[in-house]
Design brief:
Layout: E1 4-15, E2 18-30, E3 35-39, H1 46-53, E4 61-68, E5 71-72, H2 78-87, E6 89-92, H3 96-99, H4 106-117, H5 122-135, H6 141-144, H7 154-166, E7 172-176, H8 184-201, E8 204-208, H9 212-218, E9 221-226, E10 229-235, H10 236-241, H11 246-253, H12 293-297, E11 302-305, E12 310-312, E13 340-353, E14 361-374, E15 378-382, H13 389-396, E16 404-409, E17 412-413, H14 419-425, E18 429-432, H15 446-456, H16 462-475, H17 492-504, E19 510-514, H18 522-539, E20 543-546, H19 550-556, E21 559-564, E22 567-573, H20 574-579, H21 584-592, E23 607-611
């Protein structure tokens, strides 16, 4: 009997604009001890579906059946369902910062989960929590037990969330994008930990993610969702080797790992549809290169194939293999003779430790940093969470003063500038942050946000400012007519474009991208990478690109600097880093990285059965 089985699950959410059809007639079964992957773009219904199963959507209209250990979760009393959550079903949420209470220590939040479900002494609960924190990779776990969430990096907060979910050894773990904010080595550790939980305790894992490489490496079976529909479902191996649905093939094709360095990544065109309306035909038809006439007017049937794969599609065999190109370093440009835009010399940074009752000291964050970036070049910066990448970016941007060393921008030493000179220099270095929504004021309209650099530096006003803002919006692929919309009215990829438009406003000499695509779907990620490449070629921009996604760094960067414990341990041409790594830490990073497989032709797949899809 499956651990979790959904039958014709449908989730509708009433809103002021109408009914959102978030999940439509989805069925699946998860066997004991397996890793079940759920993939799809943002808004496809992945997280909503799991939240509905756990009773976390009180206002939603839910129909169908969801059987867990023989009980229908949709019919359980709220009290019984609360007791089951945590004890039998653990949940790892995507955003650890908003899931952890800022006023309580991480240790007290983990022991609270133990106290709610078990009768144990505070000392025993503390011991178990510290042991679990150590298992998920928190260094000095006994000391960090009393730390607050804001004292952890994003990756470390995610580890705390995983520890909280695993602390009661539940039968089922639902992990919603658990590795999005983590670097490849920590990601490998978390995946290994979940694997050990499965082997030692028989834990079943549901992995919700847009990282297809991760799913390809660990999932036994997967379900691909789009606009609330189950598009493809079955064993992971045949789906990744030869996807039967054009949408799955499009997601795999969007991975930058399959393209020559600097080449345009083939993204899925368009964007997911509104879930307020149910289309008459296939919901993916407007974006599908294989769409037939029947796709526009009739809902597709369920196709079952000989290898166990099922699709919701009119194609009887699946799409032909998408045209993808393997990595080729011939696309690299030479920047050896270009002028130096950024020159970092012997930079070090230390923060004071201790306080009124503690022993005063210093914690060194950056050690002897030396690097330079030439005009038109993209320098990648990679390393584990907490190694100092983002701190170095803030030092370069002038947001943090180094303890020693110099930072020169276009030959000007930034520490020597007076306030007027510093204000002028700030025009020439801009930051694009990892979280586009968190870096945009939700109460201000997009036109005002993008126009802030013009206003702050007195460059343009009135109608001229609006004209230039709308030109920037068009440049980055936004509709200029959306000038008066708020950030909440845009998708994640569109919000990242807003951040890029704001950074471009004053024609900066250097743009620092701090994890700009790590939280984006692979198809949206491809669109942003293409946009960055086009803007660099058209405007001669210079980039410092921070990322933990090594496939992305390889595709967009000319050179790569590898950081470990506040130091640059290796700096070389991108292809040299990947093909001839010199440092042991670099080899460790490369060994831990995973990329989705190159999809092959599925046109010879044998059709076994066709079933008419019935609306719930």
């Amino acid at each position: 009997m499956p651990v979790l089985e959904a039958r014709a699950l449908t989730v509708s959410i009433p809103t002021e604009d109408g009914i959102i059809h978030a999940v439509q007639n989805v069925s699946f079964a998860i066997e004991a001890g397996e890793v079940f992957g759920v993939a799809g773009e943002s808004g496809s219904g992945k997280s909503v579906m799991m939240q509905a199963i756990l009773g976390l959507l009180p206002n939603a209209e839910i129909s169908g059946e969801v059987l867990f250990e023989g009980q229908d979760l949709l019919k359980l009393p709220p009290r019984t369902l609360r007791q089951m959550r945590g004890a039998r079903i653990g949940m790892i949420f995507q955003d650890p910062l908003s899931s952890l209470h800022p006023y309580y220590t991480i240790g007290s939040q983990i022991t609270e989960a133990i106290a709610v479900h078990e009768k144990v002494s505070p000392a025993a609960a503390r011991s178990r929590a510290i042991e679990m924190l150590a298992k998920v990779g928190i260094a000095n776990a006994s000391e960090r037990f009393d730390s607050f969430p804001h004292q952890f990096s994003g990756g470390m907060r995610q580890r705390v969330m995983i520890a909280m979910a695993l602390i009661l050894n539940p039968a089922l773990i639902i992990a919603d994008e658990p590795t999005t904010a983590l670097d490849v080595t920590v990601q490998a550790q978390i995946v290994d930990l979940l694997g050990k939980m499965r082997d030692e305790f028989g834990t079943t894992v549901v992995m919700i993610t847009h990282d297809l490489g991760l799913l390809a490496s660990i999932a036994d079976r997967i379900m691909v969702m789009y606009a609330g529909n189950r598009m493809e479902y079955g064993p992971a191996a045949p789906i990744f080797a030869a996807p039967a649905h054009p949408y799955t093939a499009g997601l795999l094709r969007s991975s930058p790992a399959h393209y020559a360095a600097g080449a345009e990544v083939i993204a899925i065109p368009g964007r997911p549809p509104s879930l307020l309306h149910k289309p008459a035909g296939c919901v993916f038809a407007p974006r599908c290169a294989n769409a037939l006439a029947s796709c526009q007017t009739e809902h597709p049937p369920i196709r079952r194939f000989s290898d166990g794969v099922q699709t919701l599609c009119w194609l009887e065999a699946g799409p032909a293999a998408p045209a993808v190109r393997q990595i080729d370093d011939t696309g690299r440009g030479s920047h050896e003779t270009a002028p130096v835009v950024l020159d970092v010399r012997d930079v070090e940074l230390s923060f004071p430790t201790g306080g009124l009752f503690g022993r005063a000291g210093k914690f060194q964050v950056l050690k002897d940093i030396n690097l330079s970036v030439r005009r038109g070049e993209t320098l990648g910066l990679v390393g584990e969470s907490g190694c100092g990448k983002s701190t170095l970016a803030r030092v370069i941007a002038g947001l943090i003063a180094p303890s020693s060393g110099t930072v020169l921008l276009d030959g000007i030493e930034m520490s020597s500038l007076d306030p007027a000179g510093w204000r002028e220099t700030r025009k020439h270095v801009q930051l694009v942050f990892q979280d586009p929504f968190g870096s945009l004021n939700p109460r201000r309209r997009v036109g005002a946000i993008i126009g802030d650099p013009f206003r702050i530096h007195g460059v343009a006003a009135g109608a001229e400012r609006k004209r230039r803002v709308q030109e920037l919006m068009e440049l980055v692929g936004l509709n200029p007519e959306h000038y008066n919309r708020f950030p909440s009215e845009f998708s994640g990829g569109q919000r990242q474009r807003i951040g890029i438009a704001r950074a471009l406003a004053l024609n900066p000499g250097l743009i620092i991208f701090d994890e700009p695509v790590s939280a984006l779907d692979v198809s949206i990620q491809a669109q942003i990478l293409n946009l960055m490449r086009d803007l660099q070629q058209r405007l001669g921009l210079t980039y410092l690109f921070i990322s933990h996604d090594l496939a992305v760094v390889r595709q967009v960067c000319d050179r790569i600097a590898v950081m470990d414990k506040g130091q640059i341990v290796e700096l070389a041409a991108a292809e040299d880093i990947y093909t001839r790594p010199q440092h042991a830490y670099t080899r460790t990073l490369l060994a831990a990285s995973v990329v989705p497989p190159k999809p092959q032709d599925s046109s010879d797949r044998q059709l076994v059965e066709t079933t008419q899809w019935v609306a719930a």
